[in-house]
Amino acid sequence: MGGPLAPPKPPAVPEKPRESRCSAGLEGQLEALNALNQILYQDHSIKELVDRALGHALGVVEAEAGSLLLVSRECKKLKFFHSKGPNPVPIGTQIPWNKGIAGYVFHSGKSEISQSPKEDSRHLDLIDKLTGFTTQNIIALPVKRLDGEVIGVVEVLNMREGGGNDEKLRFLEILSTLLSISIHKAWLVTDSHMGEIANFAGDCAHNIKNMLIPILMGTELLREDLQDIFAHIPKNEANPKGPSFQTCNEVLDLITKNAHCIQKISKELVDCVMGHSSALQFAPCDVAAVATNAIETLSFLSKEKGITVRTEGLALLPPILADERRLFSVFYNLIHNAIPEVQPGGTITVRGNTEADAVHLSVTDTGRGMSKQVQENLFSDHITSSKIMGNAYGMKSIKNAIEAHGGSLKIQSTVGIGTTIHFSIPIERLTSR
Question: How far apart are CA 136 and CA 117, in angstroms?
Fold first, then answer.
């Protein structure tokens, strides 16, 4: 005989839908806000704080991705400061500050929910195309300073459980407020630190300027002594393989020229620290002469390495309005950066031509070339120099100088083949200054 019958199973209870922490009641919301507050008041860098806060917020509202964009008022752009998700936006990517839902929120200063961005005329699909991401819904919120000025936008994308709603919006508005406080606090600390750096830099520049005076005086005394020494050496006794008066004179000229340049830069740095920095000094400028000056200044480095530095087409360029010192710095830094990358017997070529409304210039080397990753980060805060004692600031200086002239810059490079840095200066804009 069989055993007793088993009792019937109770009817299955439908599984309760999982709730997000935003809809889990007051206690859950307070817990989420307290955790967010703890994150933002920890002693981390601003990038770490933003990363952790965004990650926490995405979990609370059950979103797939999120970003913080900060404004760059000089170029009227919103720049991606941080991004999280399966297809994060590359740091530093910029969009016009009056485009997209982010641009709308930035200018209106009001939060926005878009449940169907593809049907929203304000949506800018440029970033989706760049990353391969598909935006299904979005909440965008302004990030404001304590005085109410909008400094950026927080975007949270692809929320489950019905997309964006007022409850999630309220939580994210608190996130936005706490983020703005944290960013403001970090900027205050940075400003204080930069003040200390400025004072130190001012002291260094002042000392360098003064220390160059005896070097210049000694150079002239040395020139007079060498002239006297060579004058007393009979031509038939001179060693053809030894140093000539011409070579010594060229070296002394080089020392004098560079010492004067360092003096000018040191004075400008002191003036900047004292709050007396002046605007760029635009004047008619011979591009060929400026480039040749930079090449001659670096001639001993290039000759020692066995590298040929040449020019093409510069003599045909028209005079342009430019700050000659800053333009010299562009050529100097580009050539100086290229020399260590080129093998003996290689070349560095400075080219120029005029097309329509711009003077187009380039510096091409036959060096090692750069990977795509290095090219993408070349002018960002993340690049480091491979040169001894280098800090990669020269590349940022180049970009800043070209943009100050209203120009643009791009890179072409192939590993094992070489690199070309292209830059242009718009003639029409310069002639209208």
Answer: 6
Indicate the SS3 state at residue 72.
Answer: strand
Closest CA to 287 of 149, 428, 118, 425: 425
Q: Please report how many Cα atoms fall inside a 13 Å half-sphere around the Cα of residue 328, on the Cβ side.
A: 18
What's the CATH code, domain 280-433?
3.30.565.10
The structure tokens listed for 244 are: 């000539």
Fold for the domain defined by 21-189: Beta-Lactamase (3.30.450)
Q: Which residue has the tokens 């299904």?
A: 136
Threshold 0.70, pTM exceeds: no
Pairing relationship of beta strands 94-96 and 112-114 according to DSSP bridges: unpaired
Of 304, 209, 194, 319, the C-alpha closest to 259 is 209
CB atoms within 10 A of CB 241: 5
Residue 365 binned pLDDT confidence (cut-offs 50, 70, 90):
very high
Asked whether the beta carbons of 190 and 183 are under 8 A apart, the reply is: no
- Distance (Å, whole) CA 102 – CA 95: 9
Domain range summary for the chain, segments of one domain joined by +: 21-189, 280-433
CA distances, 314 to each of 292, 318, 365, 428 (Å): 9, 9, 17, 19
CB 35 within 8 A of CB 145: no
Q: Are strands 418-426 and 63-72 parallel, antiparallel or unpaired?
A: unpaired
pLDDT of residue 10: 46
Give the number of other CB atoms < 10 A from CB of residue 409.
18
The neighbouring-strand residues paired with 322 are 283
Please name which of 68, 100, 72, 104 lies closest in space to residue 83, comparing C-alpha atoms.
68
Cα–Cα distance for residue pair 135/141, rounded to 1 Å: 16
